[in-house]
Amino acid sequence: MSEPSLLMLPFFSASLKEVLILHPASTLFVPRTALIMGESPKLAHMIWPRPVATGLPNDGFVSDFSGMEKDTMHEMQNDTVKYRVFAGTWNVGGLTPPDDLELEDWLDMKANSYDIYVLGFQEIVSLNARNVLGPKKRSVSVKWNSLIGDALNKRREEEERAALRRHQEQKETFRCVASKQMVGIFVSVWARSALCRHVRHPAVSCVGAGVLGRLGNKGAVSVRFLLHGTSFCFVCCHLASGGEDGDALLRNADAADILSRTSFHGHGPEEHLLPKKILDHDRVVLLGDLNYRVAMDDGEARQLVRARKWSMLLEGDELLMELSKGRQFDGWREGLVTFPPTYKYHRDSDQFYWCAVDGGNNLTGGERRHRAPAWSDTDTFPKRCDRILWRGKGIKQLRYERCGGYRLSDHRPVRAVFHAVCEVLEGC
């Protein structure tokens, strides 16, 4: 008789410390640590069931994987292995995605060459008082996860059916490693199924930096895990908006608050050996709507955009100034920004918002003087917000670009591709 499948039931507390496993043949819950420590050999090999549209546990879960037999190690030399990591960020403007939204282009599925996907969203719900203070709209994050899973696995499901007809080996799929929502901020991490058994000690941390410096309309959701013997941390941010003098300092303060207050608390005998703070990890990627803008005369900014001289806009870029001066982003790096502005567009259009109002029919004189294209978020003062930064040795950015084909919101998604080197430890 085959061994009954296991059901892993995550029990969520503020620190995500408990995960229980229910064996169908028993009425007892077995602590997850017992399986990891080998105290229950019969159940020692467990597999997290594949997330599907109707089967995702909820908007926030963390899972460990074991029992996988196949590896996807690439270029292994001298006890290291290199993986391709896809990171993407998109402010979706509080709009619920339609059922037929296809993410394949943004996720670059034609390349079929990435091992890990990390997708960060901002404003998956409107940032009104009800959503900020009330219960989470979990259905929205579940829908986004379903769309992501469909996009990542659609081609593979077709290949699997074809392979079965030809009696060939089935292709692997992607599985969700971690997923967490805080008000409008949502992060979802996926890995190839054969790689999942090497993903250990996943954990999440949420830091609200919005209203009163604590509410979740602004802030960050962070995910950490060990891949083989190397620690990774991905930070999805939505920093303070505003284009007045001194608002850049508010964004700096948000970033400092996130780096200071984010802390990971897992479970198990190895937990005391794991990094607790963002900057303690070996490889770190920070992405999101950072809300830094272009600090230059509005008229000059308009001329540069009309001439498509994107590189000249970098001269007034607030975030690049912060990176060059150190401050809150000391040690962080960003690839060269060569893409057009990601904000502000008319919805369902490729037309910049300011192009339609430039004639003055829709704005007062004061507003007309300030409106200009930008690199993200909800006001229209000059700025560049949708950014992806990284730090740490053993990580190299290969691509950094905007995806212009998505018109769901007044923002355009951004993506980056990295090579990440991992140390391979015995038994990991």
TrEMBL record:
Domain of life of the organism encoding this protein: Eukaryota
Ranges annotated as spanning the membrane: none
Residue stretches making up the Inositol polyphosphate-related phosphatase domain: 81-426
Keywords linked to the UniProt accession: Hydrolase
Pfam families assigned to the protein according to its UniProt record, in alphabetical order: Exo_endo_phos2 (PF22669)
MF terms in GO: inositol-polyphosphate 5-phosphatase activity; phosphatidylinositol-3,4,5-trisphosphate 5-phosphatase activity; phosphatidylinositol-4,5-bisphosphate 5-phosphatase activity
SMART domains: IPPc
PANTHER family per record: OS08G0425500 PROTEIN, TYPE IV INOSITOL POLYPHOSPHATE 5-PHOSPHATASE 9
Family to which the UniProt record says this protein belongs: Belongs to the inositol polyphosphate 5-phosphatase family.
Protein name according to UniProt: Inositol polyphosphate-related phosphatase domain-containing protein
Biological classification of the source: Eukaryota, Viridiplantae, Streptophyta, Embryophyta, Tracheophyta
The encoding gene: gb03163
